Amino acid sequence: MRKYLLLARATLKTYLAYRVNFIMWRIRSMLTLVMLYFLWSQAVVGKSEIAGYAPAEIYTYIFLANFLNATVLSSRVDQLAGDILNGTIINHLLKPFSIFSLIGTREVVDKMVNILFSIAEIALFISIFRPPLAFPADPIAVLGFLAFLLLALVLSFYVSFALSMLAFWTAEVWAPRFIFLILISMLAGSLFPLDLFPPVLYNVMLLTPFPYMVYVPAKIFVDGITPQVLDFAIFGLGWLGLVASLAHMSWLRGMKEFSFFGR
Amino acid sequence: MKRYIAVILAYSLNSIKVSIQSRAGAIAFLTGKMLRFGLSALFLYFLMQQTKFLAGYTLEQTFLFFLTFNIIDSISQQLYREVYRFRPHIVSGDFDMILVKPIHPFVRVLVGGVDILDTIPTLLYIGGAAFIIQRIGMLSPEQILWYILLVINGLVIATAFHILVLAMGIISTEVDHTIMIYRDITRMGYFPIDIYEEPVRSILTFILPIGIMMSFPVKALLGMLAPQWILVAFLFSAGSLVISLRLWRAAMAKYQSASS
């Protein structure tokens, strides 16, 4: 346990060493929230609902999506691709603890820092603008939200991990990650509830893994447990199983083929 | 001047060669940009289907704001791509090699990496804006001229921002986040500046001049901008360019090579 705490402390120290980077990253997150808040506050002017969402539900969705974006999509596992390409992964493999302990500890610290700051920023935002909010009447909805949040965290980790594994076979890891980032920024539901789109498009989007990272947990918090949650669970868990298997297989095969000169 | 043009062309040619060397990267870059644009446009379309108006603007007018943002953003990214690669020059000391060359350093660090790949999306945005302008109709040549001049004015402000980022890079070695914050701030001009309430709207117009950069051209086109505001816009861009150049000179006076 002590080694994990030391790893966690070292990870935390890197945040403190690069304070400006961290502050700027948080400012960027706040700017997106400001834009979305004002966009939606204009969109709901004089309306009792928009795409089935009451104004309070839309505001709640936007704040939750911002929180989920900071929590689920922030990850340091993409560094693994760089480690493979420049050979520094060897340093990690030679250490007297599993590389997965290192990745896991970094991820936990990263998530905790992001959760803490994200909650503080959203609380500050709400205290300044005082928008109406909708909280679920049924506590089961909160449990559902937490369960799907966990699924989103693990799914996002494995997708990012699987993408990093490409570095075992190609130096062009930037291209698929760029496409992935574009898709996730638009299809995860960080900017708007996906059911704003017509049913055909919405259903196609639900076939991809992206909505299960932001839209689905936020939707469950806002709408509560509906019959659709079963579909969400089946597809979300299906994607998790598929991506996790792919990531594990790629890791095992990649490690067998990996070689590096000069280290 | 001839020498400068020749050097910029040579740098641009090199940049094009680098861009097309990695075909997968080039295809991914273009696909990603087109996907983001297409999905954003779809979102805006379906949002407007629900709301009909956004801050009093119709669907076509809102799309014009969106496309104008994309035109200014895309051209400035295309011209000033090299700014994104400035940090390694500073931290490695390579910037010294640029300074000793008999040309202004801006030729290398500001416009030394013109990105040809951005031409395709830029032309698409310009085509889209022209189509909507034609659809809106009833616009005088004078209004269209003000629109074009204010888009150029927005590009001048973007130039000032990029010079400011370079100056900050010299002073603090921090470039990556500064340029990304600039991108995020300008992204607030995706939609008409009127969606923001006071005092955010004034801050976004006069302190972080996103309103002047992105919204003023469309407002002038639609005849919603008083002549004095057009004058303010030109004065603001001239002022911001002068300030950024002064900051650049101040940063250069403080520059200490990383290698010495």
In short:
In chain A, 73% of the residues lie in helices and 0% in strands.
Task: Summarize this structure as a short list of keywords or feature phrases.
A: 263 residues, B: 260 residues, mainly alpha, 12 helices, 75% helix, globular
Plain-language structure description:
The complex is a heterodimer of chains A (263) and B (260). Chain A is mainly alpha-helical. Chain A has one domain (2-257). Chain A has helices at residues 2-17, 19-43, 55-72, 79-86, 89-94, 99-129, 139-165, 174-187, 199-206, 215-223, 228-257. The mean pLDDT of chain A is 89. Chain B has 260 residues and is mainly α. Chain B has one domain (2-254). In chain B, 75% of the residues lie in helices and 0% in strands. Chain B is built from twelve helices and no strands. In chain B, helix 3 crosses helix 8 (141-172) and helix 3 crosses helix 11 (210-221). The longest helix of chain B has 32 residues, at 141-172. In chain B, 38% of the residues are buried. The model of chain B has no long low-confidence stretch (mean pLDDT 89). Classes of the chains: A mainly alpha (263), B mainly alpha (260). Chain A binds chain B through residues 20-21, 24-25, 27-28, 31-32, 34-35, 38-39, 41-43, 47, 50-51, 172, 174-176, 178-179, 181-183, 185-187, 191-192, 196-198, 201, and chain B through 22, 24-25, 27-29, 31-33, 35-36, 39-40, 42-43, 46-47, 50-51, 54-55, 172, 174, 177-178, 180-181, 184-185, 187-188, 190-191, 195-197, 200.
